[in-house]
């Protein structure tokens, strides 16, 4: 019987009576070393120069697609925005480590057989793929990762994304507490937040930038402070929501006699726009509640001192 090769990982099958003085060498090089590659071999494929990179098969000898682990390296998006790695059309599994550099997020690296459907390897992914009997390439799915029937979802802001959670985001309730929180004093339940007698709840005072038109972002807090160094106007705040309330401290600088005008979103008692205390260093406080995003009812409390 003449020598032949296995169909999938191309191991040497020696014919009867072949290689009487070198049979062991053929076995070591053409079978045992190649099985080692197929089980645990790791190799790197350089990408960038060609749009199609064919990982050629070699019968009974060392080749790239026999390896269990393949690292995609190089650059995609320079000469070619899509690069395809073509693997042998035989059933096999691979672990792909995509370490290639992408010039834009729209670049693509695909792995496929010559006749089959390809699989796009996500940027930065380490993923397992399998080649079926039709030559199609498939990756590990959600069920294989223990996620049941869940579809994949990216981090983002739309309905199909996993929400991007910030530590400062009060929409999400903490599942653990620090040692400074006593359970009997702070209670969080659906629809309410209860603070006990030995706890406190407060909102920090944010300092605004003094300018001819003083701007504020109500998404960042409720309480603000500004020291004015000239005649100013309090601009309409951004991101106000109905029901939001708080205060804005307005402090005269060392010269005093500064005036403050108000954007028309601010509404005052008896439709009378208040005037500031004018002494050097005088402290007034504008107390407000937003009736809507564009209507803010306010009262000026003047000259805090004693």
Walkthrough of the structure:
This protein has 306 residues and is mostly beta strands. The protein has two domains: 4-139, no CATH class; 205-301, Sandwich (Jelly Rolls), CATH 2.60.120. The chain is 6% helix and 36% strand. It is built from one helix and 25 strands. It has one helix at residues 23-40; strands at 4-5, 12-13, 42-47, 52-54, 69-76, 82-87, 92-98, 101-102, 108-113, 119-120, 126-131, 137-139, 155-156, 162-163, 186-189, 192-195, 205-207, 213-214, 223-228, 232-234, 245-252, 260-262, 266-268, 283-292, 295-301. Strands 3, 5, 7, 8, 11 and 12 form a six-stranded mixed β-sheet that branches. A hairpin with a 5-residue loop joins strand 11 (126-131) and strand 12. The N and C termini lie far apart (111 Å).
């Amino acid at each position: 019987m003449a020598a032949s090769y296995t169909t999938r990982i191309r191991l040497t099958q020696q014919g009867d009576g072949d290689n009487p003085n070198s049979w062991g060498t053929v076995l070591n090089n053409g079978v045992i070393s190649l099985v080692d590659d197929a089980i645990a071999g790791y190799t790197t494929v350089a990408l960038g120069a060609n749009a199609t990179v064919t990982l050629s098969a070699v019968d009974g000898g060392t080749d790239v697609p026999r390896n269990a682990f393949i690292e995609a390296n190089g650059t995609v998006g320079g000469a070619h925005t899509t690069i395809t790695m073509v693997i042998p059309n035989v059933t096999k599994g691979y672990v792909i480590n995509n370490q290639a550099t992408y010039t834009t997020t729209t670049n693509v690296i695909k792995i496929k057989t010559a006749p089959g459907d390809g699989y796009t390897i996500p940027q930065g992914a380490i993923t397992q793929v399998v080649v079926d009997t039709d030559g199609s390439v498939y990756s590990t799915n959600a069920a294989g990762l223990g996620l049941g029937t869940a579809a994949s979802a990216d981090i983002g802001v739309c309905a199909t994304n996993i929400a991007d959670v910030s530590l400062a985001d009060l929409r999400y309730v903490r599942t653990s507490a620090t040692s400074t929180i006593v359970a009997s004093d702070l209670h969080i339940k659906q629809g309410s937040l209860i603070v006990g007698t030995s706890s406190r709840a407060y909102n920090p005072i944010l300092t605004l930038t003094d300018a001819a038109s003083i701007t504020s972002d109500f998404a960042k807090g409720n309480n603000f402070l500004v020291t004015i160094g000239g005649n100013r106007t309090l601009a309409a705040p951004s991101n106000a929501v109905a029901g939001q309330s708080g205060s804005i401290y307005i402090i005269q600088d060392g010269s005093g006699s500064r005036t403050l005008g108000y954007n028309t979103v601010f509404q005052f008692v008896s439709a009378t726009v208040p005037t500031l205390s004018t002494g050097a260093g005088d402290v007034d406080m504008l107390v407000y509640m937003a009736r809507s995003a564009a209507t803010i009812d306010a009262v000026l409390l003047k000259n805090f001192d004693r």
